[in-house]
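Researcher: Here's my situation. A collaborator sent me these components and asked whether they could plausibly form a single complex. I don't have experimental data yet, so a predicted model of the whole assembly would be a useful starting point for our discussion.
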Amino acid sequence: MALTLFGVVLNRTGWVWLIAGWAALAGVAIAQPADMQMWSVKAQDRPSDAGDAVQLFWSPIAPAAEFICYIVQRAPAAEGPFETIATVVSIDTQYVDAAALTGDVYFYRVAALDSVEAGAADQTTSPADSLSAASPARTVDTIYTAVAGPVNSTAQWFNLRRLNQFLVIIILSAAIIYFISQARSGKQLYVRKIAGLQAMEEAIGRATEMGRPILFLPGIHDMDDVQTIAGLTILARVARTVAEYETTLNVPVSRSLVMTTARETIKEAYAAAGRPDSYNDNMVHYVTDEQFGYVAAVDGIMMRQKPATCLYMGAFFAESLIVAETGAEIGAIQIAGTAQPAQLPFFVAACDYTLIGEELFAASAYLSGEPRQLGSLKGQDVGKVMAMCALGLGAALLTLHSLVPGWPILANMADWVGKVFQVR
Amino acid sequence: MNVSDWLALQVAALLTLGIVSFLYKDNPIYKICESIFLGVSAGYWFTVLFWENMVPKLYENISQAGSRPYTEAGVPSLLYVVALILGIMMLLRLFPKLGWMSRWPLSVVVGATAGLWFITYMQSNALSQLRATLLPILDFQAMDAATGTGLSGWFNKYLGNLVILVGTSTGLCYFYFSKEHKGVFGGLARVGIYFLMVTFGASFGYTVMSRMSLLLGRIDFMISEWWPSLFSGWS
């Protein structure tokens, strides 16, 4: 039997058969349950998950040369009917049922398949295919475990595998809260000048002098994108200046929620500027959710109204170059801001000023002057300092380890730094 | 090609030409095409949102809550009643006296989004990036195994990790807002923006080429499908 196993064709799982064969030849003792009738499987809810998996553990059955494949079966009741959900090679004695639904009760059993039947099942190349081939009806020498269950998959409040992320977030949040409290207490928090922002008032003034409208695009994403929120915060400041200068503001949007929020934002800005009567809902108008339909409409608006200033603040995609090129064509001053890395090159090329990535959020905090936003910005700066320190420390440790590989303590320390940033 | 296919082909071609005519200048044909595009897309998206959100997520989950207490995603079905209430509150904008209530669902959307994205951004934009950037400045053990020949091979061997580390660190300096960009720090930030601009240049070229392929696809449609159809007619 063992020699036969050595001859098994080396397909995707061929190495497993070789190991099993080696184990049998070398007389490696594989733990065997004292009483085959008591061979059991343990089923439990997988800890630290969202309630979408059940874990199964069982002891190995011997001799490996004869029983070299396990079939995992599941049923909604202890008496069945059992359905085969997976085939597991003999060196594995555990399985995660990731298809379990929250709230449903399951019963499990595991069958050990003998070598002949397993070999037949192995003729297929994928586990999914082998399910059908290894049906219980064909396993005449199959030994089943006792049925385990009932077990149901439940969600846990805490994912302990993400403890490192929790600690990083706690430290970052503490820094943010500290700076928010500092800002609220009246302390002036320094934020460096951002070139695009300095030009914004100048651009609005230019539109006023020319008697042309100002076009503001908040991107094409909905309110669930933080870039849209930052864009609307900037819109609040723009609207206030526009209200003071009595210029025309035009805000075409592609999402209904953004339209509602933008209207509220501008309304409040006009009220704060002491000109609530100058506000009207038509300043913000919905166009369409369709990306290129929106672009077609915006291009038409630009060519017909010829705005003197175009502001693009939010999440933009393929439409970025189209609108920015049209803006350049009509000779408008253009200021853009987005955190979409792929679109930044187009804005940099076609606009007068561009807020790159986090500058968009910094601009939002800077313009609003709100303690919460300023504190958040300063807290994130603390995070950047921590990141730079960790990078320097990790790089130094890894380089030293590369130079002196005989010192495992260096590798362990570098590994520890890496684990702090590991995402699971 | 039957009559309906032939007509659809002509409409597609005319709309394509109408939109492209914007390259010349804003004109009545473009305005017609733009209006058709807007009307059709707005109607299309309304239908999509109705049948893919309102019906399966709201109506079906609430109406089947008795027989199916949890959705396939593991969410309690009755939780969608909260979404229904928030949706109704949003529509209260239509009544001026109750319009203030529409701010509540907006607050829920913005607040929940901020909380969710905080974790997601922390994982994808911060921790994963940092983990991938933790590299030895010079990996002496891996040098022998470095692949590639010529300049790229030499670069990977000696400078690859260094460029990643310097680019990331100086980029972080540029996005540090609590200190003015002056002196040594200003120099580091300047190096960071150089890295960004080189990246933007590469990205610009790459994306322009992908846009060219879109244009070529449209030109191919006009030449290989529309133009022959003018002479072949329908059968």
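Model: Some features of this prediction you could bring to your collaborator: Chain B touches chain A through 72 residues (CB under 8 Å). Chain B has a mean pLDDT of 88.
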